[in-house]
């Protein structure tokens, strides 16, 4: 606990004790006095989070089927997958596919099962990238990131996407929806550069937001799964 916070608690508790000495015969009033004195100290307790926490954890039942394979075995499976996806493979391609499957089976590798597991892993990753972390809903958080501006007022950015890397949604494609936070502030923020990180603090809520962002070579719709309310913005200290 920071020294100033400890001093504030001590001062409030001292005031509380003084008040209870005056109201010793009124226990309910003592409780109410204590609640009102301590409330400002616990309100808006910040939870400093990282971007990975905005992405739900991977299902423990889903594993990477390629983690125990050699580089050549992975390459062989890749060829098998490509041939399997062709609508009209040639005779030579089918023969190559059969040969590779037989070769993999010599190492107790079931190509069909592994490719099925691959599809399950891809689906799980897509779901993970497009789902919010429900435990963070309505939490008062602090997170560092970069600003992708959406609107300005008097040379101050008043509406933006907070993203984990500089230039996202402008020079590079947008990150997954749960790696983007929509922020709107009435006070505005003097943005020196999109490459300068900031700290943003506020109440995080799960909310689907769609905005149009201007790329370096056009415009595109960008989706966010989070929105920050009651925000304060400060520059991230660079060493």
From TrEMBL:
Pfam families, alphabetized: DUF3299
Domain of life, source organism: Bacteria
Gene3D superfamilies, per the entry: Protein of unknown function (DUF3299) (2.40.50.870)
Protein name, as recorded: DUF3299 domain-containing protein
Origin species: Photobacterium lutimaris
